[in-house]
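quick one
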Amino acid sequence: MKPIRHAILTKDGSSTLRIEELKETYHSRHGAVVESEFVYINEGLRFWMEKNPSKPCRVLELGYGTGLMAYLSLLYAQKHTIEIEYTSLEAFPLKKQELESLNYNRLFQDNNAPTLFDEFNKIEWEKLVAVSPYFKLNKKEIKFEDFTPSFSYDLIFYDAFGFHAQPELWSQECMTKCYELSNHGGVWVSYCAKGSVRRGLEQAGFKTFRLPGPPGKREMLRAIKP
Ligand SMILES: C[S@@+](CC[C@H](N)C(=O)[O-])C[C@H]1O[C@@H](n2cnc3c(N)ncnc32)[C@H](O)[C@@H]1O
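structure w/ S-adenosylmethionine:
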């Protein structure tokens, strides 16, 4: 059965997609842009950049979804003139019509971005593409479980669907894989604050930190590979 995904409006005025069968949304209902900026851009990218000023950053995202987080990272790279190489894994790429049902193109049209959101989302898959002098994107249609990269990462955006929908992606095995994929000093961030996930990260070798969460969530997690 093919999942039915439809666009809904979140509390900050940005849209996201909802899958009824999984009872899951691609972002928080409390604000798709607000959540992505809070968890991944601020507690992930900004945090790593402050510790590694003017160093290029290799980011790995699970999963690409709507492309919102990748696009916000492009805007951040542009604004702060830092180099980002962004690899994003996606097991089930969205269809053109689903992407077109989102309102991000309109929301971000005044951002001096090197490309509009709709153009950004048309970027070819399975290829490292220089979107701007500061941002390279490689979208890969592959499951995280099957991914075998040739190098490791400075930052992991772990944005799987919730534990109730995809428990296998929050397993000890996946946390150990994240550890193996990270550089020393590398940072892992997620909206998820589940105790078993935190313990899995610790068991894998990460040092973990519970942080205040975005609107609608008490806590989130950051982990650092010593
Ligand atoms: C919460 S959404 C991610 C939202 C995305 N970061 C964005 O900004 O739109 C979770 C994504 O993970 C993808 N996914 C599910 N299972 C996966 C797997 N095993 N490996 C890689 N991606 C997976 C889903 O198709 C979905 O696009």
